[in-house]
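Thread title: Can someone regenerate the structure for this chain?

I was given the following input by a collaborator and told the matching structure tokens would be attached. They weren't. Posting the sequence so someone can regenerate them.
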Amino acid sequence: MKKIYESTRDCNVNVTASEAVLNGISPDGGLYVMRDLDIINIDVNELVGKNYHEIAYKILKEMLNDFSDKEIGYCVSKAYNNKFSSKNITPIVKVGDKYILELFHGKTSAFKDVALSILPYLITTSFGINKIKEEVVILTATSGDTGKAALEGFKNVKGTKIIVFYPDEGVSQVQKAQMLTQEGNNTFVSAIEGNFDDAQTGVKNIFTDNNMKKILADNQKRFSSANSINIGRLIPQIVYYFYSYIQLLETGEIQKDEKVNFVVPTGNFGNILAGYYAKLLGLPINKLICASNKNNVLYDFIKTGVYDANREFYKTISPSMDILVSSNLERLLYYMSDNNNEMVKDLMMNLVQKGKYEVENSIKQKIEEIFFAGYAKESEITKTIREVYEKDNYLIDTHTAVACKVLEDYKDETGDKTKNIVLSTASPFKFAGSVYKAIFGKHDKNEFNLMYELSEKTGFGIPDNLMGIEKKPILHESLCKTSEMKDTIIKLLNI
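Best answer:
Regenerated them for you:
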């Protein structure tokens, strides 16, 4: 089978699709990309009338060439069944003059559920394709939502174990409770002393640590990833971009071939990169609007061409976006540089050694043609949550509020009349304290009590998976320094 994926940092590192899914990250530290992605063309008009499963099948079949039709069908049917509270998986609703794509109807009430419901099946199917006998250890860093979604997705999946690292003081009370109460005979969770960037850097370093690889190999194990550095995590996210467009076509909200904007609250750049992939595959996208919070490193990069992580790290009310090193930007740089692996390698080396890099003006201009960047301050996030509730009787979380605020800034700055789809990445009840305060003012209650009060006052229902979470027993109590992550893995795996 043709090896269609290569490392962003070396065109000579080639693997099949299933190998890319299994490996998670390239041995040289690069991310797997498809060199000729833009030659795939998905005719949007042929998708009209198809449901989420059928569109997912079409896109995955194009991107995972060594999976059989039967294998793709199996993965899709297993992933998108009764795990979602909406039969549409990712329904879209009109709120004011914009469309909200609700990505929070999965088992953990966050957009990560969409991809992490199918990734375990992609990985276990890849076992068979590559005749893998080893146990796969899923190693993941989380800023809040990926961790729980990955834990839930891989819970009790045969042939796998999953270890999640999260910043001890960098997630909401509800997010932390979701992870610490996670059941499953193959699930492990550890807090770290530090922020998400520390956790992510630690995980990426472990992936390329030859000594750790040997220790695992000696125990018949191998690493893979559930973060969006894994192409198997990224590809399923392309689906809801197409499906949201189809939903608007079918209801007459947009016309055939009409271009739309997507507004994406962005931290690690994976979700919005899936939108860029959708554009390359043929979806009529005008602008991808990159919405950041106070940690606005992506805003500065898109505006100036300089990526500089040497700045203060802020803990905000949109913690899943509290990130200064956006891993998936590496894939965008690969495509924007016309697949220049050497240039990407040099830029990433600069980021490691100096904490910053600068792209050529031609690349900056290419990025600006497709992307618009904005950011929201804490007070603006709070104001936006309140205004959307009062004007439109709709409840949004803090991350979706970042996107809504940046959308208003975009319209004011450009006068663009293109219709806008806002990706709503989490249930407001995952961040009940901040949402409650934005609408009803200060309080002295914990987030769990506020979930119920917020529901009672607004009439919006709490997702079933969050009900009573504060009463569940704590099953994971590990805490380590970043320097102790390797030892923690060895201890948790009992090897």
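The CA atoms of residues 190 and 477 lie 7 Å apart.
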